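I would love for you to help me understand the pair of lines that follows before we discuss the fold together.
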Amino acid sequence: MHIGNLAGRAVLIQQETALDIGVASGDRFGPDPLRVFQQWAAFTAWAAGADFGAAKPFDSKDLLAPVPNPGQTFAIGLNYADHADEANLAHPADLVVFTKFASSLAGPNVTVELPSKFVDYETELVVIIGAAAHRVDQDQARAAVAGFCVGQDYSERVVQRRGPAPQFSLGKSYPNFSPFGPAVVTLDALQDPDALPIGAVLEGPTAAGQGGSWKVQDGNTADLIFPVARIIADLSQVVSLAPGYLIFTGTPAGVGMARGIYLQPGDVLTGPALALEQMPGARWYPDARVNYAENVLRHAGDPDRAQAAAILHLEEDGATREISWRTLAGQVASLAAALRRMRVQPGDVVAVLPNIPEAIIGLLASGEHRCGVVHLLPRPGGEGNLGSARSAGPGGVDRDRRVPLQR
């Protein structure tokens, strides 16, 4: 499940459409995004059966901070060993905690005004709390998580480090210094919530010497010194965590200060949106392949006893051909309608061709369809040839059921 914020109203995001939670629930939940997390258990029960018939297309550039008014925003320092090493600091035995002031929070698509020549970047996993937690253990802490997103902990290093005592919170709280989003992703939507790629690509003047595009951070949350459940459990021994609170969990190696660089006007820093699903208008499941066997087990049960199956053919101008997933990302809504016309039902098993774009696989294995991906058809005509793939279907597949892609 993906929860976003459009024009200050909480929405459920499914592929390229957004469902206004307040309208769809009869104002039981929302429209304030914070209210969704304050009623998390009841909301998730309702959302599991939400009707997306009234969902509308939206522009991902219009997404705001998923939780624009959290009661608290915590941040954890030195939580990756490689980052502590590049800073020449010891690995912490206990949480290093500071806060980010509310006025620094922003959505995922913002312009940051640089207050000096010493502004640095730090890409981080952000945790959204969905249940009250005080003096909890790690199992209870895990249950208190509503979801994750990705954020930036921009830092003005001079203010941060000036004495006589460091000013972490102040140096990291200029306007727009805490962008996060693009949506809150619930843990059940993640293949492995404990091993999420976290990184950043820098483009612009600072990256000119690297060909204009520089992957400055490339970490994974599996390397957190204090994993998410430990962070929440340890924090809760002192503070009471409430629904909607945010926790920036720390950054991996590759920050600018360690590289001897700082951000310049004209730089563009792009985070990975968890490298799970990019929002519409960008990429779906970047640089990753779906675990087909896992989808079969999770969504279809025994594939030999599946209710139905369908072959997806990519058609364009009457000819079957391979279409790049970047091109296809903008056609997901049409695919959803086509699947409904095919009467694909939850629990069906869908057979797919090799190299079917990740956008389709994500559509089949999630949302209203929840189909299993059971069979990868061989490519009978050789590399790049999908024209005769119909003849290679598994037994019981209706070879005439196709999904036409409309331009």
Summary: The first strand starts at residue 2 and ends at 6. The radius of gyration is 23 Å. The domain at 73-275 is CATH 3.90.850.10 (Fumarylacetoacetate hydrolase; domain 2).
